[in-house]
Amino acid sequence: MGNPFKHICMIGLGYVGLPTALLLAKRGIEVTGVDIDAERVAAINSGRTTIVEPGLDEMLRDVVSSAMLRAQDTPVAADVFIVAVPTPITANYAPDLSHVRAALNRMAPLLEIGNLVILESTLPVGGTEMCCEWLADARPDLSFPHKAGEGSDIRVVYCPERVLPGNTLFEMTHNDRVIGGITPACTMAALQIYQIFSQGGYHMTNTRTAELVKLVENAYRDVNIAFANEISTICNVLDVDPWEVCDIANNHPRVDILRQGPGVGGHCIPIDPWFIVHSVPEEARLIHMARQVNNDRPRRVAEQVISVCKEIKSPVIACLGLAYKADTDDVRESPSISVIRQLRKSYSGRLLVVEPNITDVSLDLTEDYRSELVDLSVALDSANVIVLLTDHKEFRRVRWEQLSLSGRKIIDTRGIWRKNPRQEANI
Ligand code: SAJ
Q: How far apart are CA 34 and CA 15, in angstroms?
């Protein structure tokens, strides 16, 4: 039996929606991609991506030229609607579902009996049922599975993405999928969609379990990174090299500590644990504490840089790396920006920034923080304090001899230049 779903409307063409749309289109499914960002829509229709991600450009050119993907700013009627819009947190660390709600409101008038709605945006536990309520309010003429069960007119599923930015296309085709339908019929319908392009396994469950699995995965990573960061602080007090401690401890067959760093960035790990904390604040003590430990890292890095500057007559600081992690241009929630913001509270001298993946930085960074975006060579020539914040490949290639000018201070928050570990300060 062929797949009954011929036309998919993908709402949100960002880090998750665009690659998913491409993989479906590449396998012969007609995809209409929807995004409220007019520039992004125009770029996609002309075969250009707005994201640095291996393999994406090539695949986009391919599916745009074969007309299997078209982007526009409004949803269209389709067999399947996939929602992949951001779910940030509010100023009070509560889940902000406003983009999801807006996306559902825009597509609700287009829904027809037999449609499948898949939510890929990260949701708090209970979020999928809430989405069903919103759809049901907008379309009282249709039945939805949270009330109507197996025989509902519309099927609704939560299927979180779990891909690692930087390796998105590979992980999207090879990672296991968690599919949580409101009913088993919903789950089985979504399975048909993911089987079009995914070669990974499938874990079929209910929506609440799928929602919590996604949050737990990111909270687990956050707690492990917080542990590494706390070990680093402890080592600083005890005058022990934290990298060596973790390297040796990780030789134990049952120890696997992640790496300390300047903090945790990106659009997921610094955000998703708060969804758990918000729903069960009394119980989620460790998860809450890990967030606090990791959020505090940029302040500690900045404090250390300032203390090092006091040992130098005319300090010129170069911060290497703005992106939240290696070899991307993604600066969302980047700890590097927090470090720069903190530095500017007490340092008024020259501040250079090197980010090989970005040619144009925001005005905020250059004006509010009075920083200069420069090439790596300029930073290496002019700075006497080098702060490594992101472990981009361009920085990994720098040789120790290029760094270790006499009197120059080096703060390597990622531990990539460990030729002479004792010269690096711990945080
Ligand atoms: N980091 C460290 N030390 C480490 C590892 C990471 O400080 O040992 C920092 C990174 O530098 C970065 C942040 O943590 O600032 C997050 O980076 P990441 O590579 O750990 O994760 P993301 O945010 O790019 O992607 C995560 C992944 N989640 C897990 O690995 C459990 C990915 O699979 C998810 O799909 C993604 O979040 C998401 O969208 O939820």
A: 13
Q: What is the pLDDT of residues 219-251, one digit of tens each?
A: 999 999 999 999 999 999 999 999 999 999 999
The model carries a pTM of 0.94
DSSP code, position 426: P
Most informative mutation of 158, 221, 229, 256 for ligand 1 (most atoms within 8 A of CB): 221
Q: Is 26 tagged catalytic?
A: no
Q: Is the Cβ–Cβ distance between 408 and 415 less than 8 Å? A: no
3-state helix, strand and coil shares in percent for the chain, rounded to the nearest 5: 45, 15, 45
**Superfamily of 216-424 according to CATH:** NAD(P)-binding Rossmann-like Domain (3.40.50.720)
Q: For residue 135, give the nearest of 176, 193, 83 by alpha carbon.
A: 83
Which ligand 1 atom sits closest to the C-alpha of 266?
A: 23
- Determine the pLDDT at residue 423: 44
The CATH number given to 7-200 is 3.40.50.720
- Using alpha carbons only, give the angle 200, 204, 205 rounded to the nearest 5 degrees: 145
Q: With 50 as the cut, is the pLDDT of residue 422 above it?
A: no
Give the residue among 320, 358, 288, 279 at the shortest CA–CA distance from 95. 279
pLDDT tens digits for range 15-54: 999 999 999 999 999 999 999 999 999 999 999 988 878 8
Given this model, what pLDDT does residue 324 score?
Answer: 96
| Residue reference for tokens 């120059």 | 408
The contacts of residue 13 (CB under 8 Å, 6+ apart) are: 21, 33, 34, 35, 37, 40, 41, 44, 71
- Domain residue ranges of the chain, discontinuous segments joined by +: 7-200, 216-424
